[in-house]
Amino acid sequence: MSTDKRRWKWLSAAFLAILIGVVAAACGGSDSETTTAAEDTAAADTAAADTAAAEDTAAAAGGETKIVMGFLSNCEGPFGPFWDATLAGYYTALVQYAGATPVDPADPKAGVTGAMVPGTDVPIELNTNYGCSDDKADKALAEAKRLVEQEGVNVLIGPLSGDEGIAVANYALTQPDVTFLNGISGAQDTTLKVQAPNFYRFFSDGAQWTAGLGAYAYNVLGWRTAVTIGDDYSFPYTQTAGFVSEFCSLGGTIEERIWPALGETDYSSYIAKLPKDVDGFFLDVGGTGTVQFVNQYTEVNGEDSLQGKVMGGAFISNPQIIAELGNKVKGVVAGSALPSDATTPEWEAYVAAIEAAFPDQTANAANIFLAGYYNNTVAAIKGLEAVAGNIDDAAAYHAALNGTEIETGVGPVTIDGNRNAVMDNFVVEVTDTGTKTLFVVPAVDQSFGGAFSTETPNPDRENPECVAGNPPPWAASITG
Amino acid sequence: MSANEGLKAKHVATAGPRVSWSKGTIFLLAVLAVAVLGIGIQAASDATLFAQITLNGLTLAGLYFIVASGFTLIFGLMRVVNMAHGSFYMLGGIIAFLVQERMLKPDPTSFDLPTATFGSFVLPLVIATFSVALLGLIIQQVFLRWNQGQELRQALITIAISIIVADQAVARFGGIAKEISVPIERSIELPIVGNYGTMRLVMLLVAVVVGLLLLGLITRTRFGMIVRAGVDDRQMVTALGIDIQKVFAVAFLLGAFLAGLAGVLGGSVNSVNKADDGKFLLISLVIVIVGGMGSLTGAAIGALLLGLIDSYSDVYLPDAITNYGVLLTFFLLVFVLAVRPYGLFGRPG
To answer: Considering only CA atoms, which of A132, A43, A154 is closest in space to residue A82?
Structure first.
């Protein structure tokens, strides 16, 4: 028995030593590109301490209620790769408009310090116990609840993905004094159907991102029949709804809608199943799945087989995805809320703001994940500015947000009655250097030229139905 | 309770499973018949599609088999539910990708992704599989050896390892799926099937070779004899003076090696994805439960069933419910457990 005990003592000691060694190696091994969790926490603590200090010294020029801003995104799951981009968008807005300073310009995770409501000495306390979800609605909801009910967040920026947005918007209904601004979740129902008066989306929804694609397919590429393939959840439903509604309104038909489960990695059988006798297909397999789908598709059908045959949603024109796929996606046409090739002063100012805050993230300027969080955080700050940092009366802050117009990379953005952005949409083609804008569809609103309303069925596996007639107003002008 | 009553109770207890066995079997056969009939009708309407997805199922089964054969060896012999087995798979892919990236030095500004040569594919494969094998051995020696027989403790240790590996992988590798480049033509023309991914066929071939080698190892060598004896009765093997610890170490090394190898092959067919660890652990668990602990034949049959169900359900289920294809896997699990509680080829250990 005593031998056993002694052995266990030695084993425990050895295990502890190994554990310390591993932790030390992990901490010591960090280079300029990657910081460890321990460093992140330390930096975040510093940031939080600084904010708290600023708060102590600042007079309560705003109201009684201190502003606590929280952040909810995906650090795991299919959209986990975009965690840094979403953080960069959030913090860039705070650096640009709230006078904050990045702790480490090479790493958005390190946070910022000294955020104040513009024109006042009211501090914005930034909660750094970030909400980390994994694309699942229940996880996002749990994290939103934690941030609001335990961390005291009263201005929440997030979440990232479709079903999560619907869940958080429904939660917003139960928290009228808390203000929710979407991150980049793109389901239509989030704003059109849930109608939470305190949930805002200063970015277009997934359907809006496809404006112009259906008409391009029908009028320019001459497609008459198409198939859609997308992950089986609300965001691809919304994107597909936009394409189907526009394409069918002109007379096109959808032969089949295929919905692989989100998280699928082997698409080979779905690829085999794609009908061969259709003119093309609309691809909205998302996140990391895009890389796998395209690799597996081109493996069987040839390196340039996507060109002219496929139109993509938000994922295929994403710079991070394009970098992995190279020539395989060259020539693919996609809908996008952002143009990577813009040279307008607004775009340059937006890129410069990212460069000033986080130079390494400049390549992500055309990444919707960064831009979505950026837009919504800018709106949150502008709204706070309008009420001089006083959010005692949540209704006044909400009224201010309703009338807020923000400057973004694609020009001024306002919201409609459903608190959803009205934005230009870009139809882009993937080229050697990124994406090239083919044309712009101006001021697309959530009703998509009248196709969607609170009365129309929620986008799902079968809806909207493919019906000819009443094309959106922009369709006629898109010609070869 | 009198002796007679006790005997009666025993009879009832033994009779119970026998009844459910036959009922379950009939039900299973009925479901199977309906499924086969349904697939048969579909197959007759489009033979090319049927051939393609059958081949997809077979090649996927090959990958599953390579991962699960290592898992079943460790599980059956050592009774260690190695929850880090999926991490070994993922690490195999990541290490191979990183080594290959160093060798090929892709230009980040160019759209022309580099293509691997024979050397720049085989060397990363060898480095990755041997590194993972070594890591497996170290984990077994440092963490598991001293907890032999304490299944719960060992499972918890391996869960901890898998969480650490997963988080480090996200931090250092990122989350975007990356493809390991292969030195061969990406597709090949096959009769009936048409164009088909070459690497998938290679994967199937490797699985067959691995299966045959393992079969040879288990049935024709002294090591295999000890393993088989160990699966059935570890205490007896130890009592006979065999150093079971050495056998355990080799088994773990081999299991990790196979998971690493599968990771590299999977990474060149389906891309390296940092979420693969959980997925392949689950797949291995299902296969081993269906096939039976420690049984190679069981692993092969389990992998085959899973691969084909995965493939057929993607295509032959109606579009509205393809999302639920994964449920079929668990129905399979439930059926097998109902009629064969130790798995198709398992025996009480």
So the answer is: A132
